[in-house]
Amino acid sequence: MADHNELGKEAENLAADYLIKNGYKILVRNFRFKKNEVDIIAEKDNQIIVVEVKARSTDFFILPQEAVTKGKIKSIVSAANHFMEEFNKNQEVRFDIISVLPDEKRNLNIEHIENAFEAFDAN
């Protein structure tokens, strides 16, 4: 497996652990609808939290959260809408980003950005 794939998997696991420790209930990981995917769908305070996990080995060129483009947002929103319909959920939905970057000692650090974007940002 390529290094970036390993970092991505490790980042998703770290993000899930972080969410659980902070009172979130993980409903599903890597939810797919057609070609769209959501990394983590969780629940907290009667809200559905749709989480995109972005990891980079360095922030030299771009911060991880800056890699969530308008096209990616559209993809996430599409998958989230399908999840809500498929599982008959009617709670409010929040879209978060968890950014994972290594520090100078190669420890992975998490930044949780709540309400990172709105569904209408996809239009």
How would you characterize this protein structure?
With 123 residues, the protein is an alpha+beta fold. 29% of the residues lie in helices and 39% in strands. It has helices at residues 3-21, 70-86; strands spanning 25-33, 36-44, 47-55, 92-102, 108-117. A 5-stranded mixed beta sheet has the order 1-2-3-4-5. It is globular. The model has no long low-confidence stretch (mean pLDDT 86). One of its GO terms (molecular function) is nucleic acid binding. Belongs to the UPF0102 family. It comes from Chryseobacterium formosense.
Estimated share of beta-strand residues:
35-45%
From the alpha carbons, calculate the radius of gyration and give it in angstroms.
14 Å
Order of helices and strands: HEEEHEE
Number of domains: 1
In the CATH hierarchy, the third-tier topology is known as: Trna Endonuclease, Chain: A, domain 1
User: Judging by the overall fold, what is the CATH architecture?
Assistant: 3-Layer(aba) Sandwich
Which strand order spans the largest sheet, edge to edge or round the barrel? 1-2-3-4-5
- Measured distance between first and last alpha carbons: 35 Å
Largest β-sheet summary: 5 strands, mixed
Number of DSSP helical runs: 2
Indicate the mean pLDDT. Answer: 86
Low-confidence stretches: none
The chain-level structural class is alpha+beta
| Total DSSP E strands | 5
What's the overall geometry?
A: globular
The CATH C-level name is Alpha Beta
Helical fraction: 25-40%
